[in-house]
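User: Predict the complex.
Assistant: Input components as received:
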Amino acid sequence: MMNRSAEFAARIQENLATAVLLFDKDLHLLSINSAGEGLLSVSNKRVSGMTPKQIWPKSSFFYEAIQRSLFSGSTCIERGVDMHLNNNQKIKVDCMITPILNGESPEEILVELVDANAFLRVMQEVNQQTVQEAAKESIQGMAHEIKNPLGGIRGAAQLLERELDNKDLFEYTQIIINESDRLRKFIDRMMTPSVKPAKDEMNIHEVLEYIISVVRAENSKSLNIVKDYDPSIPDIKADREQIIQAILNLLRNAVQAIDKDGLITVRTRIQRQVTIQHRLNRHIIVVDIIDDGPGIPPEIEAGAFYPMISGRAEGTGLGLSIAQQLIQSHGGLINYERRDSNTYFSILLPLEQKNGQ
Ligand SMILES: Nc1ncnc2c1ncn2[C@@H]1O[C@H](COP(=O)(O)OP(=O)(O)O)[C@@H](O)[C@H]1O
Ligand SMILES: [Mg+2]
């Protein structure tokens, strides 16, 4: 049986957000924690006993730096190192290699890795929350500005109608009254605090299939949509209607962004150890809506998640703002990124939700 402090140490290891790998002095892997398994997309079983060269066959930095540390007995710290993963993806990591000395000579080598983009993501998130708060305020301010004169316009149209002898002109006063009512309802709907999600088990791929069929039906042109699903993703607990609304908004934007032989990719993945809204999630699902269009126009990029910011003449500018609010009320986040001439809208959703959420 493990004693208390060993148990404690093991528990810390397993819950660290930092990937930790330990090699013996012959450079065989002794242990890797779950953050490490997640970051490298490998299992403990598979890599146990492997050398750095076997673990990072395409990233020479690691086996060279580990060798160097072993021989020199000195620590190596490097930021933003490219790390190739088995699935041909490349990520940037911050890396620290520490020889653990026994007297003069190293007994073991400790390697710590952190996904450099995780920090980027947290920064974007803080930015997003400020955006959402500002958005709510600006909507409420604007709603008042519109609702007050609206009452006046409607009242005046009613008075005018009473004075009119020519009944044919009622058509026009009725338009003023009906449109004022419609606008008023629209504003009330926008101002109501967002409805709490009604969560139920749902399968993300079933939902995506549905959304794709809706978007196909809306468009007369044939759409080139590639699906790249991770079939191992389990069902999630979420509000189906809200998730549909959010992803639909993103997919419609992608359709509007591409040209006639453009390509849209819908991709699902699981990621481990990701912090969203100040909460570390063991697992999240990521749904990427990727298109090969030009991306958000630079002049509106900073405010694209604000309501009523649109780059299109006929746009309402509400799509991204509503999508972001719906996903955030699920404890998740939508990120925007341009990468390799592609536009990425990534929906991050926690897989396990805490009680009462
Ligand atoms: N996939 C995309 N590619 C390029 N630009 C986009 C994309 N998604 C959104 N945008 C830009 O962001 C703006 C805001 O989007 P949105 O909030 O959905 O409002 P709307 O679509 O009504 O304009 C769009 O007008 C467009 O300029
Ligand atoms: Mg839109």
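The domain at 4-116 is CATH 3.30.450.20 (Beta-Lactamase).
Let me know if you want any component modeled separately.
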